[in-house]
Amino acid sequence: MFKRSGKRRRTERGAALVEFAIVLPILIGLFGAVIDFGDAWFTSTSVQSGVRNASVVGFDAGVDYDHDYRVVRSVMDELDNRGIETINRVVIYDPSAFTGDLPAGCYATAETGGVAGVCNSYSGAFLERVANGTARDEFVAGNCASSADSSWCATTRGGGLGTAFNVGVEVSVSHSALIGFMPFFQEYDIAKSSVISEIAR
User: Fold this and answer.
1) In 56-198, which ranges are E strands?
2) 132-185 pLDDT, tens per residue?
3) Within a 13 Å sphere around the CA of 29, how many CA atoms are in the beta-carbon half?
4) What is the Rg, in whole angstroms, of the alpha carbon atoms belonging to the chain?
5) Which residues contact residue 136 at a Cβ distance below 8 angstroms, ignoring those fewer than 6 apart?
């Protein structure tokens, strides 16, 4: 019976340790990537679900003067419940007013803004006021010019009462990777939108 020498066994153990040392960083990287990409997928589906629920709130609000406030509040509540705290922007828009991507004016840097007759844009600073409850007063009944939704006033949508119209909601969030092992994937933005058809009012 052939027996391996002690020296040969030690050499094989040493080779196994070297191989393990080479493979270990790759395994750690794969593990980190799986966790980060899984978290990104969960965040993406959470944002999409929150936007869809906000669209339903918008459908129920109809042409009420505080329509946009209710939609923004719904987005914030939904995403906060899912652990997403950094909402960059909420855009409420008329999907029938353009084709393709939203106009650049819908992403204005001001706290509130938008494109006349097309969209209203609400930034993170405005969302902070929504969170502390002071933003509701910025939606003024019967005075579109001084209301936060002045670009696309809720009470005049669809040409007035009795006209059917659609409302779209787009939300942009920033999210940090859980592990951040991949240098190109440490923080990322996700934007999701949803359109729900309004019934005739």
Assistant:
1) 87-93, 112-115, 119-123, 166-176, 187-197
2) 888 889 998 888 888 999 999 888 886 545 456 788 899 999 888 877 766 667
3) 8
4) 26
5) 66, 69, 130
What's the CA gap between 71 and 68, in Å, rounded?
5
Tokens of 89: 């922007």
Q: How far apart are CA 101 and CA 125, in angstroms?
A: 24
Q: Which two tokens stand for residue 33?
A: 């990537």
How many other CB atoms sit within 10 Å of the CB of residue 52?
16
* CB contact burial 147-165 (16+ within 10 A = b; e otherwise): bbbbbbbbbebbeeeeeeb
The answer to whether 147 touches 137, Cβ cutoff 8 Å, is: no
- Pairing assessment for the beta strands 87-93 and 166-176 based on DSSP bridges: antiparallel
Predicted local distance difference test score (pLDDT) of residue 122: 94
Pair 60, 48: CB distance under 8 Å: no
DSSP of 10-66 = HHHHHHHHHHHHHHHHHHHHHHHHHHHHHHHHHHHHHHHHHHHHHHHHHHHHTT-TT
Tokens of 37: 């990409």
DSSP 158: G
- CA 59 vs. chain centroid, Å, equals 20
